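Standup notes
- DV: blocked on the single-chain target, sequence here:
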Amino acid sequence: METRIETENLSWTVHSLPDDNSDFDPEKMESMALSHLQAARSAALLAYAPYSKFRVGASVEAEKGGESRRFSGCNVENASYGATMCAERVAIFSAVAADFRNFSLLALSTLDSADQASLSARSPCGLCRQVMSEFFSDQTVILIDGGKDDAGRDCVDITTIDIVLPWRFSL
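- DV (later): unblocked, structure below
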C-alpha cells in the first residue's frame, strides 16, 4: 500500500519503510533526502552513457565505527555492454573499497527519464538489486528520484530492499 506525504520541499510516495521506522518523520528526513538526491543528480551529470543516453547517479550513506560517509557513483557504459557499470554498483563498490559496509541509505537519480516517469523506468536493474541485497539490511532506506511536481517540490519514492527485490537470493 502506497502512502503520499507532502512536506514543504518534498512530495514522498512511501512504498515501504524499514521495520524500525514506524515513527518515520518526513520533516526530519527531508534535509538528508534532499542532500542525497542532489548528490545523485550531480553524479548523474558525470555519467558516461554514449550508447543508452541514459545518465544515472547514485549516492549511498554508509557507516563504519561510528563514522558516516557518503559515496557517489554514476553509470559508466562500455561498447561491449557486459562491462558497463551501473551507478548503484559504482557507489556501493566505492564504499566497500573504503571498508564501509553498513549502508543506511541509497538515493538514485535518472536524469534522462521524464519527471515522474513510471517507477519501473527509474528503479534499479536486476544486477544492482542483487548487489543491494548483498549489502543492504532490511533497515536501509532506498530513495528514487521522481523529478519535480507541479508545485516545484522534489518527488521521491521511498522503499526498502524487501520491496525492490522480494524473494532475493542469498546463501
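- Follow-up: The domain at 3-164 is CATH 3.40.140.10 (Cytidine Deaminase; domain 2).
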